[in-house]
Structure formats: structure tokens, C-alpha cells
Hints:
The protein is 27% helix and 26% strand. The strands form three sheets. Strands 4, 14, 15, 16, 17, 18, 19, 20 and 21 form a nine-stranded mixed sheet that branches. Strands 5-6-7-8-9-11-12-13 form an eight-stranded parallel barrel, surrounded by five helices. Strands 1-2-3 form a three-stranded antiparallel sheet. The chain starts with a strand and ends in an 18-residue tail after the last strand. It folds into two domains: 4-32 and 280-408, Lyase, Ornithine Decarboxylase, Chain A, domain 1, CATH 2.40.37.10; 34-278, Alpha-Beta Barrel (TIM Barrel). The protein has helices at 18-25, 34-46, 65-73, 83-91, 108-117, 127-140, 178-186, 208-226, 252-263, 276-279, 312-316, and strands at 4-7, 10-13, 16-17, 29-33, 53-58, 77-80, 99-101, 121-124, 144-151, 173-174, 191-197, 233-235, 269-272, 283-294, 299-303, 322-324, 332-338, 347-355, 362-365, 387-391, 394-399. Helix 5 (108-117) packs across helix 6 (127-140) and helix 8 (208-226) packs parallel to helix 9. It is globular and about 70 Å long. It has eleven helices and 21 strands. Strand 20 (387-391) and strand 21 form a beta hairpin. The chain is of the alpha/beta class and 417 residues long.
Amino acid sequence: MHYFQYKDEQLHAEEVSIKDIVERVGTPAYIYSHATLERHFKAMDDAFAGTPHTICYSVKANSSLGVLKTFINLGGGVDIVSGGELYRALAAGVDPKKVVYSGVGKRDDEIAYALDSGILLFNVESEQELDRIDMVAGHLGKKAGIALRVNPDVDPETHPYITTGLKKAKFGINIERALEQYARAKTLQNLEIIGVDCHIGSQLTKVSPFVDTIKKLKRLVAGVREMGIDLKYLDLGGGLGIQYNDEVPPLPSEYGKAILEETKDLGLHLLFEPGRNLVGNAGILVAKCLFTKKGDEKDFIIIDAGMNDLARPALYGSFHGVQPVVKDQEGTVVADIVGPICESGDFLVKEREVPNFKQGDFVAFMSAGAYGFTMSSNYNSRPRVPEIMVKGDRYEVIREREKVEDLIKGEHLPSFL
């Protein structure tokens, strides 16, 4: 459920007309609904009411300070994968003891920054990373809380690019070798082993892969405890899907019921890292139709947003629903919706029946709150677009549109030219 609805043939975000917003701030632009963010967080949080847990929002899905602050105000923590994401989360006011640090390539300076910030734990993804965290912690005179991210070899039945829990994935440590790595970690003086972590993929539309994963993790937890290691946390990652088109993902309540049943006897504090599930349907990208073009074999709708603004269709062939901001089109047309980028892969829609947009129409791409702005770039020297948050009948620009002079910020002509 989201709060983007039509009123008098005009698309609104909560109580605010999208047309009014983009006529003021221009296009392209990302627009987020605060009520949707809040609803989705509470649905996930409520699904685990009665058991110790923390919802650590996955910053990579949407790292806007306004989005982070919304979840932090609701009691959430964060899952980060870089020092930059930690900086953002701290700037938004996160409690460092609600920060988990994932990712396969943590640099020494990032590890030190996280230790100095007092984060809860590192999700460790390789044997060499264990050694580096131990070394950096030793230099700082600190103890690093860690969990091993284990790879359970469970097929999440999702897109191969967002599958992370199979043996061939770059993520995590094979579950069959995890016990020996826990034993090794126990010998390292500057580590405190406090958890087990797992994340099998993104955009899952079934509960069963999560349940299968937990069954494997329970055997690992028992083995780790037999070593005399006092585990406190079980991090089950994220991955619960959303509806982009005709998917029917489980509700958080259904997901929560299944997880609680499988983990009820473990006595561990549960950590979750939802990203897309919280923000995906809470945001839209709005663009303007610049031209329409009839080709020999297909029709094109050319807009002012491109693959640099919303990369998912070009990367994954992803589906985003397309809606007019104002319903005044005459019929529909089968067309590609493409942007101004000089790449054949610059499309947001391929050969789909869409409203028969005309020059000047505003076009809304739905379910763009996750991996939208956060994956955008300045390719073709295009300034990145603004982000706007709506709450009730108010809205604010929470990130200004970049200016062309921002494109060369930090650049210098070499003295020998």
C-alpha cells in the first residue's frame, strides 16, 4: 500500500498534487511519500513485536538523509556497506549501537571509522577480512563486535544479479566452512564474536527460501555455541520483495510469522536489513515528455529522464509502472519510453502499452524509491535530479537539483596544459 493516488484525474502524493510539485521544481525529480515510508517500517517492525529485534534499514536502497531520519525516528538502525553510508547515517542521527556493517570490501580506514564510531558489529565476509578487522581493532585498542556472514547455498528464486546466497556468489563464507572460521575467529584477540549473519538475495516473493535458510543456520548456531561462544544476534538480512507489476510478495506479517516460528527457541536478538521493502513503493520518478517519434518498426516516447537517473531497467530489464500525472491522454500506444542518453540501452520501458503521451505531459514511473536516485550518475554530464519528500499537505526539497557547475567541482586543469 502506498499513498500515490488520483484525485480529480491528477496524481497526488498524499495530499499534494504531483503536477504542482514538478511545475515548481522541474523534471526529472524523485518524490517520496513520508506516510508510505512510515507505514512500511511499522509493518515490518510490528511483524516481530514481542521478540527482541532491530530493523536495520539497508542504506544502499535509498541513502537520502530525509529517508534515513524517518526510519531513525521510528527506532530503526541501519545496515551499511561503506564508510560514506556510515557518515550519512550518523549525520541523520542514528544510534551507532544500531549499525551493522556489511559488504565484501571494507578498507582499513573504513573499519577504523566504524570502530571509532562504536558500531554494533561487522558482518564479516571472508577469512582475510577477519584478520584485517582484528589488526585494525588492535591498533586502536578496541574490541570489534563481529558476525560471520554465511552463505547457505539456498536459491532465492530471484534475478541472478540480486541473488547473493548461492555457492558461486561473491558474498559470505560457505556455511560448510563456517564452523572452522568461527573457531579461528575465537583465537583472535581483538574480536568479540556476537552473531551469525546471512542474506540470500533481493526481491524475494516467497517465504520458503527464508525458512530453508534458517533451518541451516540453526545447525550452525548450535555448533558455534558448542565451542563456548556466547552468540547474541542472528542477522537474517533483507530481501523481502515488493510489487512492481504482477508480483504477489508475502506481507510482512506472513514473513514475520514464519521467521518467529523457526527462531522461537534460539534465544537470539533478531536483526533485519530491509531496504527495497521499506522504500521501493514509497517513491516515484517524474519526467516530462519532450518528443514523440514514429519509427519504421516501433514508436518512441522521448523523455527528459534517462538511464543515468533510473538505471534499473537498463541493468536488469526491470519493470516500473508508468502513469500519467494528469489523465488527459487519448488512448494508449505500444512504445518504448527512452531518455536523452547516447546509449542504445537508455530505456525505461520497452515495447509496452502505455498512455498515449504527448509533448509536455508529465510521466510518473512508479515504485522508484529503491535503487533509484542512489544508483544515479552524471553520465553524459547530466546534473543529478532533486529529491522531494511529501508529508500530508506539505512538501520540501530534501536534495537540491545539481547545477552544471557542480559537475566540475573538485576538478582541476593540470598545470602543464
